[in-house]
């Protein structure tokens, strides 16, 4: 095989979870893909020898060679120290071996400076929940910043498409189990503005990242309303004369945010009495979702003829809930569309 010059790669440590400096800092130099053997690896032209470990040469599958050298640096190196890996090999000049090769040099990052980030900064923009829009009659958008080693230099700013004033509340940083911090900034907006499709932008700046991270959100335009089906308890379950299970399926909707609640005799059912499973994406249907809700009631209440209703709210039904009801006497489910009228109480447009 003809001679091959080596490729040299720096290996530097990643950030620690808490940002604290490790007891020692390590740098390594990977020399690979060369032929023939051997190479000579030195640090700073041989001036640095303490803390150096050069590992045995390895032959890879294509017949070429790989070798690496590790340098352990004290935790408190002198200010301005730099380190370079010098590799000498009888490299190629045309197709001939060079009898007097010059070393290849690779300058590594200064100790304590990492070119990787174990916890990349993540910015998530969360829309108003349907509970807020339809029940609490308010709208808030949350900008969640997570994965920070330190939250000290964080800056979060907001803009809106109309350029109007902003009502912002920023919460204190929260320390997570992995040693990183998260911060949430909350923007209060008018329900009518969100429903009209106004655009809102969160801009995040942090010292660990050279450029700002910008996220934009607005009400989804491409909507699909859910189809809603309610099922009465099974006869075999009723025969046990203990509990009765009523199920509700909402399917084929987009986006995935949906509100599913229940009523009994037109009164709200406590949340602990029913279980929602989902939303989950439908198999083979991109951007369409379904959700199941399971309500447990006393068999005696079902037998006496109480009316139960599954109430579903979704953006595909502007300001409208689908109301599906079932009871022992009716024998079959019934459907009603219920419009939700928002009052002006505590709702202010800027």
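^ Assign residues to that structure.
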């Amino acid at each position: 095989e003809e001679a091959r010059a080596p490729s040299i790669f720096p290996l530097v440590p990643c950030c620690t979870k808490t940002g604290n400096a490790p007891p020692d800092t390590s740098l390594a130099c990977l020399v690979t893909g060369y032929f023939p053997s051997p190479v000579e690896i030195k640090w700073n032209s041989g001036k640095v020898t303490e803390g150096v470990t050069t590992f045995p040469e390895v032959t890879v599958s294509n017949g070429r060679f790989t070798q690496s050298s590790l340098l352990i640096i004290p935790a408190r190196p002198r200010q301005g120290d730099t380190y370079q890996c010098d590799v000498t090999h009888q490299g190629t000049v045309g197709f001939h071996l060079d009898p007097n090769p010059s070393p290849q040099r690779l300058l590594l990052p200064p100790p304590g400076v990492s070119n990787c980030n174990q916890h990349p900064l993540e910015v998530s923009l969360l829309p108003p929940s349907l509970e807020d829009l339809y029940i609490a009659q308010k709208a808030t958008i949350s900008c969640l910043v997570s994965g920070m080693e330190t939250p000290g230099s964080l800056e979060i700013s907001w803009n809106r498409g109309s350029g109007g004033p902003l009502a912002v509340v920023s919460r204190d940083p929260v320390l997570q189990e992995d040693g990183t911090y998260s911060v949430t900034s909350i923007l209060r907006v008018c329900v009518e503005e969100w429903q009209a499709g106004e655009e809102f932008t969160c801009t995040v700046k942090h010292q660990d990242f050279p450029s700002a991270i910008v996220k934009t959100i607005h009400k989804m335009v491409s909507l699909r309303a859910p189809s809603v089906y309610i099922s009465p308890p099974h006869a075999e379950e009723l025969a046990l004369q203990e509990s009765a299970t009523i199920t509700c399926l909402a399917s084929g909707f987009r986006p995935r945010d949906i509100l599913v609640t229940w009523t009994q005799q037109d009164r709200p059912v406590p949340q602990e009495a029913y279980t929602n499973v989902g939303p989950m994406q439908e198999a083979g249907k991109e951007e369409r979702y379904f959700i199941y809700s399971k309500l447990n009631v006393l068999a005696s209440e079902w037998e006496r003829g109480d009316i139960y209703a599954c109430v579903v709210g979704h953006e595909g039904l502007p300001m409208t809930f689908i109301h599906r009801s079932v009871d022992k006497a009716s024998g079959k489910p019934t459907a009603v569309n219920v419009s939700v009228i928002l009052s002006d109480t505590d709702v202010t447009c800027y």
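The helical segments are 130-136, 191-195, 235-239, 299-303.
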